[in-house]
Amino acid sequence: MLSQRHLVTSLKAFRLFSASARSSLDLAHHVFQKPQAGESNGRPIIFIHGLFGSKQNNRGMSKVLASQLGTTVYAIDLRNHGDSPHVPEHNYDVMADDVENFIKNRNLKKPVLLGHSMGAKAAMHLALRAPDLISAIISVDNSPNKTKLSEKFPAYIKYMQEIENAGVTKQSEADEILRRVEPSLPIRQFLLTNLAREQSGQALRFRIPLAILKESLPHLGDFPFTQSDTVQFGGPALFLRGTRSRYITDKSFPIIRHFFPNYKLMDVDAAVVNFMKSLD
After folding, report:
1. What topology does CATH give the domain 24-148+222-278?
2. Residue ranges per domain, the chain?
3. What is the mean pLDDT of residues 90-95?
4. What's the pTM?
């Protein structure tokens, strides 16, 4: 029989484990301020990148949104990306925790969450879990479905690890290795934005924790809620998809409508500004 002492010790250990497993992180970010002149709709935007991305990738669009909408845009680095901390746990529960912590720590009033791919699922998860915290979401190229990720993602990580193992010192050498798995130059250039050199002359290494992200891949096609759940986000929700998107298809509409009854779907990438203006 478990003694009282052992029970108390076990419960304390469980609480410590639970707290550490779900402790939120302070995320690295860039702030793009609204201009002095012009109207503001009063809704800050939190721009959330996708897998292998960072706040750097969203600088240009963040500047455009801040300028055209007269508001403040926060481009963030999710955990295990960019300049944010590296931790073993990487799933939508903890990513939503991090974004919620970011909002509350800065006293942001009803921000709009703009997420791409992995960042879109993190945004959708937070919207369903804490609907009163935000005013609207914009999901770029993802839906609240459980979807198998492209087989290219584990292949990317494999060859990125091969780049590190090869000890390359030039980006051209890294690109040559990555070319074996990805023929598209823009995609290779995007992946290689994560390369960094600590000191002159040293080998290039990726600033993202490849081993952690490799282990997390099975979780990233998942979604924490199913159609049997009654949670909903009743605020405005815009879903943007590319015409060849495999993550937002016509079969996605029922589950999108289930979770986000006030949704719009657009097939054009330039729809964000018009959607934001329509919120007034």
Report:
1. Rossmann fold (3.40.50)
2. 24-148+222-278, 152-218
3. 97
4. 0.85
Which residues are CB-neighbours of 132 under 8 A, at least 6 positions away?
none
Quote the pLDDT of residue 53: 97
Q: Which two tokens stand for residue 182?
A: 């990805």
> How confident is the model over 232-258, as a mean pLDDT?
87
